[in-house]
Amino acid sequence: MKVKKSIFEIFLDIILILLSILVIYWLIELIFGGSPTLSEFMLGLVLILATLFIKLNREVGETKIEMKHISKGVKEGFNKIKEDITKTKEDINNINNNLELIKSKLKIKQSE
User: Fold this and answer.
1) What is the pTM of this model?
2) What integer pLDDT is reported at residue 57 of this predicted model?
């Protein structure tokens, strides 16, 4: 089931992609003796990890919310089954009572 992404998720994806490109570019420059310092490179890595953390934290939160809804639905389903079983037992008791009444009216003896 595909769910539409929110604007915030799209924003996080764009930031993640741009930071990744920037860090890869800085890494290539560092390898070949370019201009970014090691601290700038590390800052880029930290920003990528922070963005990933925010994105994962949001996804875990959404999953927890979905699990609460699923749990609530399961509980309601079991309560409905319990009500149906109770109603079925009442129906069977009514049928037995009606059958006993019919037997007594027709004077049919139950064999043991």
Assistant:
1) 0.58
2) 92
